C-alpha cells in the first residue's frame, strides 16, 4: 500500500446518517413543540373566539291566544271598577275638605247618632280641635 493512503481505521466515516438523524430528530422536536403549543394555547383561544351563533328563537304563534285575550280583558274591567271606586273615594274626600275641618263637631262627616253628654265636649281654649284658625302665642306654645 501507499504511504499516503489512509488505513481502514483512519479512513473518514460517512456522516450522512448523523446529519439525517439530526434533521429527523429536529423535525420531530419541532413538530412536538408546535403540537403542544396548539393544544395548550391556540385551541382554547379559537374555541372561545369562533363559536356558532345562538339558534334563532322559535317563531311566535300566528295570532294571539283567545283565552289570554279574554283573561286580559277581564283584568282590565276589574281594574276599571277598582279605579272607579278610588275616584269616588277621592271625590268624597274632596267634598269633605270643602267643609270646616278645623272643628271637632263632626270629624267623620257623619251626623252624630246621639248628642254628647254635658261636660264631654272640651272647649277650644283648653286645647280641643286642631287649632286651624288660631295663632300660636307664648301661652299655647309648650
Cα gyration radius (Å): 52 Å
- Beta-strand portion reads under 5%
Order of helices and strands: HH
Report how far the terminal alpha carbons are from each other: 142 Å
Question: How is the main sheet built?
Answer: none
| Structural class category | mainly alpha
Q: What coarse outline follows from CA principal-axis ratios?
A: rod-shaped
Number of beta-strand segments:
0
Q: Note poorly predicted spans.
A: 124-129
Q: What value does the average pLDDT take?
A: 77
Total DSSP helices = 2
Helical content band? 40-55%
Walkthrough of the structure:
- This protein has 142 residues and is mostly helical.
- 47% of the residues lie in helices and 0% in strands.
- It is rod-shaped, with a radius of gyration of 52 Å.
- The protein starts with 15 loop residues before the first helix and ends in a 44-residue tail after the last helix.
Secondary structure blueprint with pairings:
Layout: H1 16-49, H2 66-98
How would you describe this structure in keywords?
single chain, 142 residues, mainly alpha, 47% helix, 0% strand
